[in-house]
Amino acid sequence: MKAASNILTDSITPSDPLVFGFWKVPQESCQEVCYNAIKAGYRRLDCACDYGNEKQVGQGIQQALQDGICTREDLFVTSKLWNTYHHPDHVPLACQRSLEDLQLEYLDEYLIHFPISTEFVDFDKKYPPEWTNLDGKMVLVPNDMCATWKAMEALVETGKCKTIGVCNFSTQLLRQIIATANIRPSTLQVELHPHNAQTKLVRFAHEQGMNVTAFSTFGSASYVELDMATADDSLMTHSVIASIAKAHSKTPAQVLIRWALQRNTFPLTKTSNTARMAENRNVLDFVLTGDEMNAIDNLNKNHRYNDPGVFCEAGMGTFCPIYE
Ligand SMILES: NC(=O)C1=CN([C@@H]2O[C@H](COP(=O)(O)OP(=O)(O)OC[C@H]3O[C@@H](n4cnc5c(N)ncnc54)[C@H](OP(=O)(O)O)[C@@H]3O)[C@@H](O)[C@H]2O)C=CC1
Ligand SMILES: O=C1CO[C@H](CO)[C@@H](O)[C@@H]1O
């Protein structure tokens, strides 16, 4: 079995492991947020057609390239295949749409966004896609995920994507893909924070040689604004995190990012605030001790805020206010 690489010590490209995400970044400010994130030093950009702002991310990237802040090759741009496009015929169309919106020739990474296949909705009728069809209903369709994966592999073969991977997959689903893959998933992106540590899943992915990207690194923070969590759940004010932060003269946000790094995962964070972009990047000059890592590990309660079951049952159209 291939040993997991260590992102803190191994040479990775880009060498910076911090990922900037665009979910819930409003279209109006997204170009500027993207530009500021690149200017702040982020080279890994996490996008998705479902976020409804890939055109604006593309404009931000172009602005940064034109200003000479970085080159295209310095960037690692991720996009994601939405649930409505899992049929093998639709995979290249969805990828092409993201490429055009982002003004890119290729993606560094293309991920299956959820292992949930829903009824196809024509690009011309509703774009960006949502969880629901044109009638506002969530219609699940039978799908062979291995066939979807074959279509993902073709994107690598035609040069549209450098690497392919998955989000929100369980160990079992990963095993199914890996069993038939010609090109194995390079990345698993899942919800990871001290309240949802998913240690076995992370270990399995690492054992399989996959990179693991941690989304919602700050736990409930992103879900409070959607009324899906209360301030009581906050890791940002938790006494354990606060006291470790104080000991290192760091902020709780920096401790949470550092915990993710020391678990050998790529921390994915979002902020629209330029000062916080700098704060969230200032995490490479301190190390959490073994005892501190253990104390944070002990906060796990297997609480997943981004639980598809919740919104599938509720028939929710989308979590994302920018579509409303
Ligand atoms: N593959 C998938 O299914 C999913 C992927 N993702 C990806 O992960 C990214 C990040 O996840 P997300 O859930 O947004 O969560 P984060 O854990 O990054 O939390 C974002 C929230 O934290 C706030 N915040 C950011 N920095 C700080 C700071 N230093 N101090 C205090 N508050 C701060 C932000 O507010 P403000 O902007 O006001 O600073 C925002 O409310 C997404 O943008 C997306 O790219 C997310 C969910 C699912
Ligand atoms: O990535 C995302 C964040 O979570 C949301 C709810 O699951 C998704 O809709 C969105 O695409």
TrEMBL record:
Q: Name one GO molecular function term.
A: oxidoreductase activity
Q: Mind telling me which PROSITE patterns this protein's record contains?
A: ALDOKETO_REDUCTASE_2
Domain (NADP-dependent oxidoreductase) ranges: 18-300
Q: Which InterPro entries match?
A: AKR, Aldo/ket_reductase_CS, NADP_OxRdtase_dom
**What protein does this entry describe?**
Aldo-keto oxidoreductase
Question: Which organism is the protein's source?
Answer: Nitzschia inconspicua
